[in-house]
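Duplicate of #3305? Posting structure anyway:
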């Protein structure tokens, strides 16, 4: 198939004698086109939506079924679940090029023009009528629903200026200014956050969804448009608030629920693909696997935390933004200390709180505690869970004992890696435990410092050692029973009972 405009037919006569027969173009709708290309991809086992992770066995099969059924459909999901990205990738199921009457605002089919301007042009020019071509990505029109959207925006309105300039009577069809939906003709029209569209505007979608046509103002004009309509919405808005009117819900062919990553590995894969971490600063980045796991665990823990609003959700943008801030804090420290390797530490995750707190909606209990406090507790919990994955069954008694006999370690968040590695080496048995993280003896100081700090943070998360601003890492203060049995409350109770 030709790939450039110069190789494509430029007139209706050329089109008739080309590989685009009238019999196919005249009867092939957008939904048929999507269905046909989808069937071809399925037969060849091609990946349908590259870059979409975690939906292979859940959402994607349902989208495939909707397209095979020629349904308009809606994606229901909380924020940050790749709904918009998924519907934008539907253009990969369109043909590379689509012919239309040159200059037509609604991309009329040359063999079946529906607007007055194109019908008049073809009647006058015949086979000399000019043809233009639309690429697949240009056949996608998206509108973010807001309360101020009008019928004129969506469908169209009378344009007095067009009438005056063309010397037309204002009742003439040629004076119509087409809205977004007609301009998306022969393509995909998407509405994001459908519940935010006013009810009277939702009513305006009835005809296009059921009969495939729109009527503009008081004109006796019927435009049989060819469209695939897709929508996105938040489940809370869709069901609880009742902002989508019932007749519109009834006209939507398939309702597909999206979700957050089902496993930590899927989340890490998404974050790795989306986060901006490869930076041209002349410094090598080495992201430890345990740091990536802690950041992702944060999102999973927040989604399960009773202090976080479940209806709002915790977007996948949280681990992406936190990862970028973590790398930035490590990058800043490396530049200040003139180091050649950027290796994030757990302390950098705490420094990334500003990228975290704004993405979590708290319940009343969380509001009382404060966003920063809840965020720090979530980080500490995430560190503890990841620590268990690497060090379950590993004896850490020698490290804990070093602190119990009076050892302490206090280093600033901006301390250089060489200095920190020296201090960590002084803790008995600590650095030999880093072998569980896959470290070798000749790792750079930046990597060793990060690993050693992770172990201490993990012990702190499990309350085996303490950490404070004044003392740094130190022995955990434990409550002791009074030495004199007479002063022990339980002993007194037993004595009185006897």
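Output from current build:
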């Amino acid at each position: 198939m030709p790939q450039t405009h110069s190789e494509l037919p430029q007139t209706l006569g050329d089109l008739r004698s080309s590989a685009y027969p009238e019999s196919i173009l005249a009867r092939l709708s957008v939904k048929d086109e999507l269905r046909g290309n989808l069937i071809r991809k399925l037969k060849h086992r091609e990946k349908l939506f590259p870059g979409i992770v975690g939906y292979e066995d859940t959402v994607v099969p349902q989208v495939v079924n909707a397209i095979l059924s020629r349904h308009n459909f809606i994606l229901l999901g909380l924020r940050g679940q790749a709904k918009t990205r998924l519907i934008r990738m539907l253009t990969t199921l369109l043909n590379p090029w689509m012919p239309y009457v040159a200059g037509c605002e609604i991309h009329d089919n040359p063999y079946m023009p529906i607007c007055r301007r194109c019908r008049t042009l073809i009647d006058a020019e015949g086979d000399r009528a000019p043809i233009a071509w639309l690429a697949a990505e240009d056949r996608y029109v998206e509108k973010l629903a807001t309360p101020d959207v009008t019928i004129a925006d969506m469908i169209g309105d009378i344009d007095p200026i067009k009438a005056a300039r063309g010397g037309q009577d204002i009742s003439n069809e040629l004076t119509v200014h087409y809205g977004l939906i007609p301009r998306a003709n022969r393509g995909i029209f998407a509405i994001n956050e459908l519940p935010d569209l006013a009810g009277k505007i939702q009513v305006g979608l009835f005809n296009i969804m059921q009969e495939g046509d729109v009527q503009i103002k008081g004109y006796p004009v019927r435009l049989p448009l060819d469209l695939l309509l897709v929508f996105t919405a938040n489940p809370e808005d869709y069901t609880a608030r009742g902002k989508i009117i019932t007749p519109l819900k009834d006209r939507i062919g398939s309702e597909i629920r999206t979700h957050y990553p089902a496993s930590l590995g899927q989340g890490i894969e998404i974050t790795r693909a989306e986060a901006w971490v490869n930076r041209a600063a002349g410094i090598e980045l080495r992201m430890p696997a345990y740091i990536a796991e802690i950041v992702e665990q944060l999102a999973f823990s927040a989604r399960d935390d009773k202090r976080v609003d479940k209806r709002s959700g915790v977007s996948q943008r949280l681990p992406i933004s936190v990862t970028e801030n973590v790398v930035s804090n490590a990058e800043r420290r490396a530049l200040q200390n003139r180091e050649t390797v950027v290796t994030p530490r757990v302390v950098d995750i705490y420094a990334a709180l500003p990228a975290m707190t704004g993405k979590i909606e708290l319940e009343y209990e969380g509001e009382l505690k404060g966003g920063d406090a809840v965020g720090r507790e979530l980080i500490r919990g995430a560190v503890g869970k990841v620590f268990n994955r690497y060090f379950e069954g590993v004896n850490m008694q020698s490290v804990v004992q070093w602190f119990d006999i009076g050892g302490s370690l206090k280093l600033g968040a901006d301390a250089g890696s060489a200095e920190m590695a020296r201090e960590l080496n002084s803790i008995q048995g600590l650095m030999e435990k880093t072998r569980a993280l896959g470290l070798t003896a000749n790792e750079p100081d930046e990597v060793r410092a990060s690993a050693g700090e992770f172990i201490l943070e993990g012990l702190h998360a499990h309350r085996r050692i303490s950490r404070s601003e004044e003392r740094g890492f130190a022995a955990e203060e434990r409550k002791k029973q009074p030495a004199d049995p007479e002063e022990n409350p339980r002993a007194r109770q037993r004595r009185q009972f006897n």
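Confirmed duplicate; merging threads. Confidence is low (pLDDT under 50) at residues 479-483, 489-498. The longest strand covers residues 227-233.
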